[in-house]
Amino acid sequence: MLHIPLGQIEDNEILEVVSDLAQILRWPLLDFEEHTVFDFLQIVMTEKLLSTTYLPSPSILDKKMAKIQDHGFYQVCKQLVGNLSLEPYDRKTLLSFLKSHFTCSRSKAIYLPSNPTDQERKIDLIRLRRRNGTL
User: Fold this and answer.
1) Which of 8, 20, 110, 129 lies in the 20 to 30 Å Cα band around 41?
2) What is the pLDDT along the chain (135 residues), one digit of tens a residue?
3) How far is residue 80 CA from its own chain's centroid?
4) What is the domain partition of the chain in residue ranges?
5) Torsional class of 40: left (φ above 0), alpha (ψ -120 to 50), beta (otherwise)
6) Residue 84: which residues within 8 A CB-CB, separation 6 or more?
7) Which residues make Cβ contacts (< 8 Å) with residue 55, sequence separation at least 6?
8) Burial (0-12, 13-18, 19+ Cβ within 10 Å), 14
9) What b/e sequence results for 39-70 when a residue is b if at least 16 CB atoms lie within 10 Å of its CB, and e otherwise?
């Protein structure tokens, strides 16, 4: 399901979720017919202002994961977690589940020093202070 282009999906329930996401961001869905479901979700979830408050009516994105088990998009979510159980996510809404799987936290980012010699100078300064007892 994740790697099927949006233009080839026949499941109306999956198309409902995809169209709701496109509607939140006011994007024409026809522009993404060649993209796979995974690619579309990845593009949509990187948007900063993604929230269900922008939907004009109640949507499946507002529903808890426990209540969409009979929905076609539940299988897509299962594939996102590697076909493991989705019970730990039962209290999350579908939108928050998707956000948590397509956004990375800033704490996981790796920052390299801008100038290695500058970093070495800072380390030497710290060692000098420790030897002198000023730090």
Assistant:
1) 110
2) 788 999 999 998 899 888 888 887 788 888 889 999 988 888 887 776 566 666 656 778 888 999 998 888 898 999 988 888 899 999 998 888 988 887 655 544 444 455 667 777 788 888 888 888 765
3) 10
4) 6-108
5) alpha
6) 78
7) 20, 23, 24, 61, 62
8) buried
9) ebbeebbeeeebebeeeeeebbbeeebeebee
